[in-house]
Amino acid sequence: MVNPQMVMYEEEFVQIQTIVDRLVKEANAKVVFIVDKNGQLIAASGDVEEIDTTSLASLTAGNIAATGGIAKLLKENEFATQFHEGENQNIHIQLVGNRVILVVIFDAKSSLGLVRLRVRKATDELNNVFEALVNKTQDPASDSPFAEITDDDIDSLFND
Questions:
Q1: What backbone torsions phi and psi does residue 30 show, to the nearest 5 degrees?
Q2: pTM above 0.90, yes or no
Q3: pLDDT at 76
Q4: Which parts of the chain are beta strand (E)?
Q5: Which terminus of the chain has fewer Cβ atoms in its 10 Å neighbourhood, N or C?
Q6: CA dihedral in degrees (10, 16, 17, 23; nearest 10)?
Q7: CATH superfamily of 10-157
């Protein structure tokens, strides 16, 4: 099932980016990024210049979807954490509130234990940010980016 697009406000984006930036340092990671379950990159930090983040984000979302299928076959809700070990690099993948995917790429300069410890803290912080974001978008009294647009404004866009 495809998730609806998430509305992101600047305030929450800055909070998310701050968490991602801090996680790179605290986990001694090469790259950290947040992806929505549709494969859209939300935030990234670290040595992202050397990585095709668009492809990696899409493939990570596909990996989560495939693993979700395996979980259903095994009568599990989900597998919230994944770890892939390579010769030179490792990837730790964590579902955050069943909304977004936190990806940490690290090498021998860090350890899985350190990454897991720091990811646990970052996941709690990210859950709080995304909960606030969901509450903000569902609150009818909140400022919608479309609130000031009227039907007349829309009609005038399509008239010659």
A1: -80, -45
A2: no
A3: 92
A4: 31-36, 41-46, 81-85, 90-96, 100-106
A5: C
A6: 170
A7: Dynein light chain 2a, cytoplasmic (3.30.450.30)
